Amino acid sequence: MLRLIFFLVLVLSLAGRVEAATLPDASPLRPATDFTPAGPAQAQGVLVWLHGAYNTDEPPPPLPDFLRRLPRLGWDVWRFDRTTGRDPLDAGGAELASGLAALRRAGYRHIAVAGHSRGAWIALTTLAHPGLADTVAAFSPAAFGARPEQRERALTAWQSLLDAAQPSRAHVLLATWRRDPLIADPDGLLASVRGAFAPDGFTLDIIDRPAAPTGHMGVYDPSFDTLFGACTARFLTGGPGC
Fold this sequence. Notes:
- This protein is α/β, with parallel strands linked by helices.
- It has a single domain (2-236), classed as Alpha/Beta hydrolase fold, catalytic domain (Rossmann fold).
- Helices cover 37% and strands 15% of the residues.
- It has helices spanning 2-21, 69-72, 89-106, 118-124, 151-164, 186-197, 222-236; strands at 30-31, 45-50, 75-79, 111-116, 135-139, 171-176, 203-208.
- Strand 6 (171-176), helix 6 and strand 7 form a beta-alpha-beta unit.
- Helix 3 (89-106) packs across helix 4 (118-124) and helix 5 (151-164) packs parallel to helix 6.
- The longest helix has 20 residues, at 2-21.
């Protein structure tokens, strides 16, 4: 009996190594080390997370709590970890698109992209390439800081980002919070999103400044997972939203 148990453990271990070896090369995207990926043949889908900007003397920000729901639903979680010293918007969007195309070619059945702040902004560039992602979620999208002199530049860039989106059947989630200093005109931001996406066949879900959480880092607050984690995970995996 002990030999049989040892043999079964060995077989399962080797099977896991084989599956890990079949993960696609989707550089610069990488599997999140928090979970063991099932791979495109076994996973229900894959989500790619893009963090916001961070200081170069710190490690990349951790995953928000709600993303831990995805592996329990049979999904793989990958990351696009840019660095502060090398984080241009246009180049980041191009690298993301290349990585997503590799994941699609590898056979993932459903692809979701989600990001926070600057990562959310880059995630939205995916919508310029129909078919790369089935769902895109943007939490507090921002890329130009909070200084008043940057406001006009930010508004122009935001409108260009929306104009580049191509009509598709993609699901889009936008989440904003109260007291977010990096979003100067949340009403205008939401109006522009509705105007850009609603007429073009996108399925749009909006979390609009709820009572909690608050601030630019709202998606990382434990209250987000408590209040919105389940419905956000459901939307990301192709179901109805919040």
